[in-house]
């Protein structure tokens, strides 16, 4: 399988646009302020499936509006047999489903075969929408797998190219260079490397920061390091409590940031989570701000070995990593939390979901589920940013995941703090799949919700070049409120990591409203792949705080 082909672009709605005419008609965007209201609403939950067959330990949304889910083949019997296998085949590893493709529209799963074990692995999307998946456990620890969602019958494909080092609990990030992914760290591995390889003998490169942040007594506390691509092209890397700005091309630390306060480490097994807040056209996409929330208390791993479950951290920290003198600004969540997922919403707010209140990550090392999500509004005044949302009835502990769907819902699955599929115990293996619907998707707001989005990116084109102008057409039943245009790179989610998650607020240079309610907006693409690495993004139009459903578009190197 080619991993850099340009197939399967039928879902990108690109048509000929009269860009020049619109630019003549309206040289600026006119907006009116409006109150979204309903900020006190707390969202709702829906059970989608009683069983996905396989635990959603890892989860990723594809541009074909499917979700690929998988766990570990070493877990043994799962909740679903592969086609053609019967009870007489139960002893065969290949006869149990440990990966599925979820069709969002059909609300159904299709089993996928896995050749090697991707347990606790990492991943990223290439520019053509192919999912690149790295590392794992046992026979999968040095493997690279690809999943092309545009294939007529998508399947996992194992690359003959191996990773240089063993990668278990590593992190990936897509880079500005076309189809280049960095793979960082892993258990007792203090290096980084790249995929795909550009030379037959391309090796791995030492990263002493990973060795410096390892706590041997706490089983690491630097695994699954948080990685964010800064606006200057360098990587922000956070492990344990410390962080650096790293030039991966020169293998050089550019800046060392202050140690994060708050009472404990933030990385596996003291698992918290991290996001980079949306980049904004208004400052040239220069300001980059990272937020990290939750984690385990100092000594939680050793305490668990003594049968004690320490209270998790309740602190969050924000830091503008592009400041001349950056420092952490700390604040508290409504309660303690670890193993939480952090997702960027189209409103620019942050959703914290899943996890527990005591212990640390790993097999049966935590208790007391965090059933209620938190909503965080970063632009509110300090002390008024967090709110508590409606709880789920399902415990989402270790090995649970969450992602944003194109229709605005949050897909939530997984949880398995056991080595095998185990039921009838506290916090059993969880195969149920849920959706959380944020308040702004309520039908109450439909009259002010932009609808029927389409992207017009020029004649004979199926992608948008950097710095190009393109047209977004949408319908609006009433006069616009304050319009914001956001694009969102969906993450690969696992172990409270949302790898490669990224959001940008785009500039608008012209706006036309037709008598039938249709609106044409002239938007400008990000200036470079440093700001937005090439690939598929979800576009949403937010009207007075109420977002449309997403529409796919693609930014590409010319």
From TrEMBL:
Keywords, in A-Z order: Signal
InterPro entries: Gal_Oxase/kelch_b-propeller (IPR011043), Gal_Oxidase_central_sf (IPR037293), Glyoxal_oxidase_N (IPR009880), GO-like_E_set (IPR015202), Ig-like_fold (IPR013783), Ig_E-set (IPR014756)
Signal peptide boundaries: none
Boundaries of every Glyoxal oxidase N-terminal domain copy: 57-440
Residue stretches making up the Galactose oxidase-like Early set domain: 462-554
Record's protein name: Galactose oxidase-like Early set domain-containing protein
Organism name: Musa balbisiana (Banana)
